[in-house]
């Protein structure tokens, strides 16, 4: 077995430590909560919090809007493990560390990964506050978490023809309709950050096929696909992207918008988990 810092062996060690805290129920899903979307944690019943700093192999999260903790408990009566916070490459982390929490969720037994993020809206019909079902992504980070020796259980050349599971997407559409949420759909363009984009970069992204842009998620989804997890994801369009927005972008606007749509987002995830 490979013993790379963020590989399978390290994930198994982290999972053992987490189980000692939250118990050994197998999660039906692992959930990654993006910037400002950590409020879902409040809907988790019988929650047990584990700060990232107490998980072997995890650095502590540093970004405003990220609690930096893992929560075990039940959502819609089903066992889940949620991460309020994640590891971004703009913090200086390797792609392999950005994807490491997914290996840990897999080691805990989660067959499905639900990812969420805050993103800038590129498609002209998007408005701040929209929720976007992620149909595909563009890896414009030019890094890949799988570079290095092959981890046991990984696929060397993972298929990425359907990274976001069609059936799970269909379920999310149904849940959104039942909740009266108008769910947008599109392609997430993942950039390194931490600068927001220039207007020309946003025009380039539109030409390349991105409907939304953000600084996370891609390494996590790549790892999930390499180890055979099913993936579904939602972007919260927190702002119109640079050059489309009439005002300068700010993290404050991102947080403000996520706060506004948090309840809708949380209801959608709750139903999604209940339907798994
Ligand atoms: N660009 C990149 N990342 C983001 C944005 C954006 O406009 N909004 C929220 N995260």
Work out the count of structural domains: 1
Q: Provide the CATH superfamily.
A: Nucleoside phosphorylase domain
Number of helices: 6
CATH class: Alpha Beta
Ligands in the model, by name, code or SMILES, are: hypoxanthine
Mean pLDDT: 95
Cα end-to-end separation:
32 Å
Structural class: alpha/beta
Main beta-sheet strand count, sense and barrel state = 5 strands, mixed, barrel
Radius of gyration from the alpha-carbon trace, in angstroms: 17 Å
Approximately what portion of the residues adopt beta-strand conformation?
Answer: 15-25%
The neighbouring-strand order within the major sheet is 5-8-7-6-9
Helix content: 25-40%
Which series of helices and strands comes N to C? HEEEEHEEHEHEHEH
Give the strand tally: 9
CATH fold name, please?
Answer: Rossmann fold
Question: What would you note in describing this structure?
Answer:
The chain is of the alpha/beta class and 276 residues long. It has one domain (8-274): Rossmann fold, CATH 3.40.50. It is built from six helices and nine strands, in the order H-E-E-E-E-H-E-E-H-E-H-E-H-E-H. The chain has helices at 8-22, 95-107, 166-179, 199-208, 218-226, 251-274, and strands at residues 29-33, 45-51, 69-75, 78-84, 112-121, 131-139, 183-190, 212-214, 230-240. The protein has a five-stranded mixed beta barrel, surrounded by four helices. Strand 7, helix 4 (199-208) and strand 8 form a beta-alpha-beta unit. The longest helix is centred in the last third of the chain and has 24 residues, at 251-274. It is globular. The chain starts with 7 loop residues before the first helix and ends with a helix. Hypoxanthine (HPA) is lined by residues 118-120, 196-197, 213-215, 238-239, 241, 249, 254.
């Amino acid at each position: 077995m490979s013993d790379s810092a963020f590989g399978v062996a390290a994930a198994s060690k982290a999972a053992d430590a987490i189980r000692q805290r939250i118990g050994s129920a197998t999660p039906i899903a692992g959930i990654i909560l993006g910037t400002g979307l950590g409020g879902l944690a409040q809907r988790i019943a019988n929650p047990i919090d584990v700060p990232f700093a107490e998980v072997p192999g995890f650095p502590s999260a540093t970004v405003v809007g990220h609690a930096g903790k893992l929560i075990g408990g039940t959502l819609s009566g089903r066992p889940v493990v949620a991460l309020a916070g994640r590891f971004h490459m703009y913090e200086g982390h390797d792609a392999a560390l950005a994807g490491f929490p997914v290996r840990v969720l897999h080691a805990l037994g989660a067959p499905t990964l639900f990812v969420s993020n805050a993103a800038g809206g590129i498609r002209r019909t998007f408005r701040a506050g929209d929720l976007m079902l992620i149909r595909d992504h563009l890896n414009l980070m030019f890094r890949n978490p799988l570079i290095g020796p092959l981890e046991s259980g990984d696929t060397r050349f993972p298929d990425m023809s359907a990274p976001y599971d069609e059936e799970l997407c269909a379920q999310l559409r149904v849940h959104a309709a039942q909740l009266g949420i108008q769910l947008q759909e599109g392609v997430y363009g993942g950039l390194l950050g931490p600068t927001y984009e220039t207007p020309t970069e946003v025009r380039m992204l539109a030409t390349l096929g991105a409907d939304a842009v953000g600084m996370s998620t891609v390494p996590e989804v790549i790892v999930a696909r390499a180890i055979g997890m099913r993936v579904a994801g939602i972007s919260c369009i927190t702002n119109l992207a640079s050059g489309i927005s009439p005002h300068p972008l700010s993290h404050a606007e991102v947080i403000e918008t996520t706060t506004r749509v948090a309840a809708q987002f949380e209801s959608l995830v709750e139903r999604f988990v209940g339907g798994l």
